[in-house]
Design goal:
Layout lengths: L3 H24 L5 E8 L2 E8 L4 H8 L18 E4 L2 E4 L12 E3 L12 H8 L9 H14 L5 H7 L10 H17 L1
Parallel strand pairs: 1-5
Antiparallel strand pairs: 1-2, 3-4, 3-5
Bound molecules: FE2/S2 (inorganic) cluster (FES) (2 copies).
Length: 188
């Protein structure tokens, strides 16, 4: 199971790799473009992007998927969390070129035909958000948890969202909403 702590560890490694790639691109000359092809929210997309562009920048600037928020841009806050090949990742620490060939799910991919996803409905019902800035990342972490564990405990929810910082302090309601969404999914 990928917990928030594991995720932060993995992302620190990715940050190191990112810094490394920045250094080598500086050393090796100007930024270059590369063609990437991936699936985002079930649709295949192809673009020529700068090799230093992050996945978060790619989603927001190239695809206009601005539901993915960028808070710290340094792998610390979790607001940019998306799901890549089934695992939650911090999209500010993943290069767009690293996402080529992968399947990415963002907050925009959860609702269908104008209906909120049950996790989103539970967040609304349980007041699990205030300003909402952390919410897309928080919901993607919860989605990844429920995909692999349909009966999470409060502790499971805490561990899976411990890399998602909420300045408004909505944590208790996030737990309630997640448990409720899990119960509803199990009875539907
Ligand atoms: S914006 Fe990516 S972890 Fe903060
Ligand atoms: S709801 Fe405001 S930062 Fe979480």
């Amino acid at each position: 199971m990928t917990t928030g702590k594991t995720r932060r560890f993995l992302h620190r490694r990715m940050r190191t790799r990112k810094r490394g790639s920045r250094m080598s691109s500086r050393e090796n000359g100007p930024e270059t473009k590369k063609r990437i092809a991936l699936t985002v929210n079930g649709k295949k997309v192809e673009r020529d992007i700068h090799n230093r562009m992050t996945l978060a920048e790619f989603l927001r600037e190239e695809l206009d998927l601005t539901g993915t928020k960028v808070g710290c841009n340094h792998g610390e806050c979790g607001s940019c969390t998306v799901i890549m090949d089934g695992d939650p990742v911090l999209s500010c620490t993943v290069l767009g070129v690293e996402a080529s060939g992968r399947e990415v799910l963002t907050i925009e991919g959860l609702s269908s035909e104008g209906r909120l996803h049950p996790i989103q409905e539970a967040f609304v019902e349980h007041d699990a958000l205030q300003c909402g800035y952390c919410t897309p990342g928080m919901i993607m972490s919860v989605k990844a948890l429920l995909d692999r564990n349909p009966n999470p405990t409060d502790e499971d929810v805490r561990k899976s969202t411990d890399g998602n910082f909420c300045r408004c302090g909505s944590y208790p309601n996030v737990i309630k909403a997640t448990i409720e969404a899990a119960k509803k999914a199990n009875h539907s």
